[in-house]
Design goal:
The protein is α/β, with parallel strands linked by helices. Helix content is 54%, strand content 11%.
């Protein structure tokens, strides 16, 4: 299993590392051979095999000088060099955290969530399964506040307000970002779980119905009659990007988040999502169900 308990800040860094590993493999060089390569010594680049391995896995930063030396050592083609250096430039421009994150770093950092916040608005495709609640990108502020208060009783009121602000800011950033397709799969039981009272829940259902009409959103409800299935292990998000080849899976647990980017892990979550998606209500039936819930009298 990959090192999933450590947030990687830069998708570009992972992509650069992966591309460099592909080039090294193509040349037939081992990690140790690259570390002793005369061109690196000539340029003053100091890398041992362990450092190079971490670089290839995206677990350490890399300078332009080091990349240049490696590209020359691997005899990279002009187009390969251009693509890798472009990714490196993007990585360098994304390292400053937004002021909202800095203000609430004391809460966000232990959650290991800033990596997700960095990636989410850059994703062109999101597939999000949520077994117990409505997805964060589809929550109203009132619903979000009650969810955070109840799920994180350890937080102060100020921290709760801060996380609500971050969640609504996420929605704005995604709205203005690269997203072209959002598939939201909601467990039917979450729609009957009253959070914040009847008025808050009704407003949330109305908001969800409106969101289902947006062209890039496809929302499906998984009927409770489906019974037990792998998705009950917890919520997850599959993320695809327009500028890099790899996909990632992000999993949020009680007070932190983990991610996976190994193809076997991504494929496993993708298969679960496909299976549940095909067993869920069609979009029109989902909207009809939401309208029915909205019209139901308060209990």
């Amino acid at each position: 299993m990959p090192e999933s308990n450590e947030t990687r800040w830069s998708l570009e860094r992972m992509e650069v590392g992966g591309r460099l590993q592909e080039l090294r493999t193509r040349t037939g060089l081992t990690l140790s051979q690259v570390a002793r390569h005369p061109l690196l010594r000539e340029r003053g680049v100091k890398l041992d095999a362990t450092a190079l391995s971490r670089l290839e896995n995206g677990r350490r930063s890399i300078s332009r000088e080091t990349v240049d030396a490696l590209l020359d050592s691997y005899e990279a083609r002009a187009e390969e060099r251009q693509e890798i250096l472009a990714l490196l430039t993007v990585d360098a421009t994304r390292r400053r955290r937004p002021s909202l994150w800095r203000r609430h770093a004391a809460v966000l950092s232990p959650m290991q969530f800033e990596g997700y916040l960095t990636l989410e608005p850059r994703a062109s495709r999101l597939r999000n399964y949520q077994p117990a609640l409505i997805q964060g990108l589809l929550q109203t502020p009132d619903y979000a506040r009650h969810v955070i208060e109840r799920m994180r009783p350890d937080l102060s009121p100020a921290d709760v307000r801060g996380l609500v602000d971050v969640r609504i800011d996420r929605q704005r950033k995604v709205e203005d970002g690269a997203l072209t397709e959002f598939r939201a799969l909601i467990d039917g039981s979450s729609l009957r779980r009253v959070i914040g009272g009847e008025a808050v829940m009704r407003a949330q259902l109305e908001h969800l119905l409106a969101a289902s009409e947006q062209p890039r959103n496809t929302i499906r409800i998984l009927p409770e009659t489906v019974g037990c299935h792998p998705g009950l292990a917890g919520p997850f998000v599959l993320m695809s990007f327009p500028t890099v080849t790899r996909e990632v899976v992000w999993v949020e647990i009680m007070d932190r988040s983990v991610y996976f980017e190994e193809p076997a892990e991504v494929d496993r979550y993708a298969q679960v999502f496909r299976d549940l998606w095909n067993r869920a209500l069609e979009p029109d039936d989902t909207r009809a169900h939401l309208k029915k819930l909205i019209k139901e009298p308060s209990q």
